[in-house]
């Protein structure tokens, strides 16, 4: 399990004045929200791999057509008792064959690291 210090991470969110920038310009190392990705995916250059923050209440199958372009999927645990991201991770790894980095973020307890690894996560934001 790789532990990510967000202050030294190669992937960075793309913010605007009032939150995430709605149509970010293509650059390497960008961590996009799902909404940002939907806004730019049609003209995003294939040579710029991306990372996507994916909400735990959305259907993970939305990412399947783009998995070859995605380097990192960040799955959120808004509460430590909310385990939907475990299911999303299993689907990405086992059903859809995603081989990129699966990163957990949010309210994850140290006691849950074994469960994270079993579900297919290989990184965690500290």
In short:
The protein contains three helices and nine strands; from the N terminus they run βββββαββαβαβ. With 126 residues, it is an alpha/beta fold. 26% of the residues are buried.
Write the layout of secondary structure elements.
Elements: E1 2-4, E2 12-13, E3 15-16, E4 19-20, E5 30-33, H1 34-40, E6 50-54, E7 70-77, H2 84-95, E8 101-106, H3 113-119, E9 123-125
Parallel strand pairs: 1-9, 2-5, 5-6, 6-7, 7-8, 8-9
Antiparallel strand pairs: 3-4
Helix pairs in contact: 2-3
What is the element string, with H for helices and E for strands?
A: EEEEEHEEHEHE
Distance from N terminus to C terminus (CA atoms, Å) equals: 12 Å
Kindly state the mean pLDDT as a whole number? 87
Which spans of ≥5 residues are poorly predicted at pLDDT below 50?
A: none
Strand content: 25-35%
Question: Over all CA atoms, what is the radius of gyration?
Answer: 14 Å
Strand-pairing-aware structural class: alpha/beta
Number of beta strands: 9
Largest sheet: 7 strands, parallel
Strand order of the largest sheet: 1-9-8-7-6-5-2
Helix content: 10-25%
Q: How many distinct helices?
A: 3
Query: What oligomeric state best describes the polypeptide chains here?
Result: single chain
The general outline is globular
């Amino acid at each position: 399990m790789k532990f990510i210090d967000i202050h030294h991470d190669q992937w960075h969110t793309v913010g605007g004045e009032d939150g995430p920038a709605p149509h970010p310009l293509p650059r390497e190392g960008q961590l996009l929200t799902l909404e940002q990705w939907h806004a730019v995916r049609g003209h995003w250059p294939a040579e710029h791999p991306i990372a996507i923050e994916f909400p735990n209440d959305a259907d993970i199958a939305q990412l399947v057509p783009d998995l070859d372009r995605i380097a990192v999927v960040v799955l959120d645990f808004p509460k430590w008792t909310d385990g939907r991201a475990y299911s999303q991770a299993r689907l990405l790894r086992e059903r859809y064959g995603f081989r990129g980095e699966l990163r957990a973020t949010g309210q994850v307890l140290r006691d849950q690291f074994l469960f994270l690894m079993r579900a297919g996560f290989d990184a965690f934001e500290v």
